[in-house]
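User: quick one, sequence for these tokens?
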């Protein structure tokens, strides 16, 4: 056989070892060519059966990441998409039908199609490393686990657990996978040859779900499980916004989890999902996320990342954070979680202690195992004297938002930095050029702007001042990837992208409050549009003092100031953190009354909220705050959660049409004033 993507070997015990190594790629994904080749291998093995078959991956990063999304996005029609699905099903059915024992040896990422191949094997063994994860994330792309996952996973671990994984798209580590019965054994990757041999030469009984889990598949119980799952889904997403989770439930309940059984015109069919705008938007966001990841590739200059050697780039090894407050403390803790040595400086030890405490909580939650938690704690080093400055590859400042104080700190720090080190500021509003004046080498200053809460927000704006060098930008982007965040390069202008677009939206919401609309109604309108959270609740969460400061910074002359916001700030009712803002907060939850939406036109309210954000997005595009429209969209989605199913602000404009939105703006301008004046950038859109 002439194989490009697979390697087949047979050993002295007549065991076959099939290694997946997709040609010309660093990650294993399933294209139709890869699937056809696998099919050929399986036909061969059927003809000349070995004693057993182990399937492995040659890629360091994992077993397989799933279907080739690139190929999926270039499919021209729902028919072609269905053909791709049928092909995968036929090939994985062949794996399942093999007469000898089969085992998938899983390390690193095992997602979507990768998991579905593993599920088609009789056994699964999983590496116990921290980067190993298995899951069916299709729902996040607006599709269903269509290569047998929706059939085999419920069969293996019971429908309730399987639906939970399929509907959230959550991936599980080896421990959890073993507990669920998703894998038969857990062992370090270096022991894979022995583990595979053992399982294939002395095959144990095939895993079956326990009685309780199996019972959820009985007729009658099945309907109950499905309706419970549907209720859970309905709490999070509407069917017209997100059809995929509903389709997954129906696929399992009514069609045995097999996409080939679903009639074409059924809302759960591949055709319906393929033609739904949400699916297009979610897949586009997924590919744009890859674009952001690629922006974080280490540059070619050997001194970037600092201390890196060409070819054996160790990345950033030591970060020094100045300011252990809300942001600096959490940024430091996050970097240590991601394996970097961090020294954390503040004015006094008691200012650093709360950050270390929050770090410990984060590590317990994320790392679980004691020795890993201890390791992360050891990497997070309090450093009141600032000794870390001299050793750090990156010095990140997150002190009070005051240019004078920041300049003072920079002047003290710069002479002590390694010549290769980078200086960064987490400032949300001060232009870098205002800070760079005190520096001998202003080209090494960059903005690295995190969002709050640091552990949850994926996006980081990388801000280029007029003097920041291209290499320093690239290094800052690479650093962002190293700590598993998404870098968005931005021009240094007030609010950068995210706060600038968010601000007029929040402002409009707060002006509606002043007009007497209940906060619940305003929030309901935004959620109805597809925002994950309403603007009033969001403002309370961000902190009304911060909203006030950002609003002041970005306010345009003549725009009205939200009066209730001002009153709350003056009364020190700052939102969630003080227990009272626009809402009263109890145990981190806003106490909401009924939405009172009775006669209110939520759609018109949503237009009024969203239109200023769209207008500002157009302005950002015109001013090249980010490079292009795709980056505006992906930035707003990962920076604020802007209605993902709509694909971001610019996609929202395109979906309804530029002319329509301009009409909305003109009408709003006539009613509410000049703040709705369409930006001059609309013409070029
Ligand atoms: P914070 O007030 O919670 O923390 C500031 C910390 O800096 C305090 O612990 C203070 O003791 C320390 N500090 C002040 N002067 C210092 C000095 N000379 N040397 C060492 N430490 C010093 O402030 P927060 O909210 O963490 O903000 C910090 C920076 O991050 C600001 O530039 C802010 O604009 C930016 N930022 C804030 C966000 C937020 O949501 N709070 C979001 C993104 C950026």
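Assistant:
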């Amino acid at each position: 056989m002439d194989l490009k993507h697979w390697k087949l070997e047979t050993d002295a015990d007549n065991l076959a070892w099939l290694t997946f190594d997709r040609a010309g790629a660093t990650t294993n994904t399933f294209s139709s060519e890869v699937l056809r080749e696998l099919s050929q291998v399986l036909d061969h093995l059927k003809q000349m059966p070995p004693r057993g078959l182990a399937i492995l991956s040659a890629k360091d990063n994992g077993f397989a990441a799933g279907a080739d999304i690139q190929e999926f996005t270039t499919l021209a029609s729902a028919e072609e998409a269905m053909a791709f699905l049928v092909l995968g099903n036929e090939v994985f059915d062949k794996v399942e039908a093999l007469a000898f024992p089969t085992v998938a040896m899983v390390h690193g990422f095992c997602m979507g199609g990768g998991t579905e191949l593993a599920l088609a094997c009789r056994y699964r063994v999983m590496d116990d490393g921290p980067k190993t994860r298995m899951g069916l994330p299709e729902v996040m792309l607006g599709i269903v686990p269509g290569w047998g996952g929706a059939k085999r996973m419920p069969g293996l671990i019971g429908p309730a657990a399987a639906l939970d994984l399929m509907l959230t798209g959550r991936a599980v580590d080896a421990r959890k996978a073993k507990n669920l019965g998703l894998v038969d054994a857990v062992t370090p990757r270096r022991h894979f040859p022995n583990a595979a041999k053992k399982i294939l030469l002395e095959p144990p009984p095939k895993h079956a779900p326990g009685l309780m889990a199996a019972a959820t598949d009985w007729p009658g119980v099945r309907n109950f499980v499905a309706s419970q799952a549907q209720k859970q889904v309905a709490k999070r997403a509407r069917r017209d916004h997100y059809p995929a989770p509903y389709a997954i439930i129906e696929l399992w309940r009514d069609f045995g989890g097999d996409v080939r059984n679903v009639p074409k015109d059924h809302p759960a069919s591949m055709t319906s999902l393929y033609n739904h705008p949400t699916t297009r938007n979610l897949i586009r966001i997924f590919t744009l996320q890859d674009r952001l990841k690629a922006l974080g590739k280490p540059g070619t200059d050997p001194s970037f990342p600092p201390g890196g050697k060409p070819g054996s780039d160790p990345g950033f090894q030591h970060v020094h954070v100045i300011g252990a407050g809300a942001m600096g403390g959490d940024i430091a803790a996050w970097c240590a979680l991601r394996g970097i040595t961090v020294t954390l400086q503040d004015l006094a030890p008691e200012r650093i202690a709360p950050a270390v405490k929050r770090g410990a909580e984060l590590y317990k939650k994320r790392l679980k195992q004691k020795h890993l938690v201890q390791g992360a704690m050891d990497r997070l080093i309090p450093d009141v004297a600032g000794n870390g400055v001299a050793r750090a590859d990156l010095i990140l400042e997150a002190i009070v938002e005051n240019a004078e104080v920041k300049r003072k700190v920079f002047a003290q720090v710069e002479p002590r930095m390694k010549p290769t080190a980078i200086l960064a500021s987490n400032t949300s509003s001060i232009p870098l050029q205002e800070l760079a004046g005190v520096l001998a080498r202003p080209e090494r200053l960059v903005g690295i702007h995190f969002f709050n809460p640091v552990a949850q927000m994926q996006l980081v704006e990388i801000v280029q001042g007029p003097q920041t060098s291209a290499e320093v930008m690239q290094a800052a982007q690479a650093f962002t990837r190293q700590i598993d965040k998404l870098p968005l390069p931005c021009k240094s202008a007030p609010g950068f992208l995210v706060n600038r677009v968010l601000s007029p939206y929040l402002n409009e919401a707060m002006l509606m409050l002043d007009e007497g609309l209940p906060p619940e109604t305003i929030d309901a309108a935004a959620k109805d549009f597809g925002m994950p959270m309403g603007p009033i609740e969001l403002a309370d969460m961000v902190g009304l003092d911060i909203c006030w400061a950002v609003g002041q910074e970005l306010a345009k002359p003549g725009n009205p100031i939200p009066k209730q916001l001002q009153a709350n700030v003056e009364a020190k009712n700052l939102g969630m953190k003080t227990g009272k803002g626009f809402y009263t907060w109890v145990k981190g939850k806003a106490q909401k009354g009924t939405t009172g939406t009775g006669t209110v036109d939520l759609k018109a309210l949503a237009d009024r909220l969203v239109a200023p954000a769209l207008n500002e997005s157009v302005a950002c595009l015109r001013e090249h705050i980010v490079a292009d429209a795709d980056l505006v969209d992906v930035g707003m989605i990962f920076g604020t959660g802007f209605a993902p199913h709509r694909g971001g602000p610019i996609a929202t404009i395109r979906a309804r049409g530029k002319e329509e939105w301009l009409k909305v703006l003109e009408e709003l301008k006539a009613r509410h004033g000049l703040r709705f004046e369409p930006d001059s950038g609309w013409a070029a859109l």
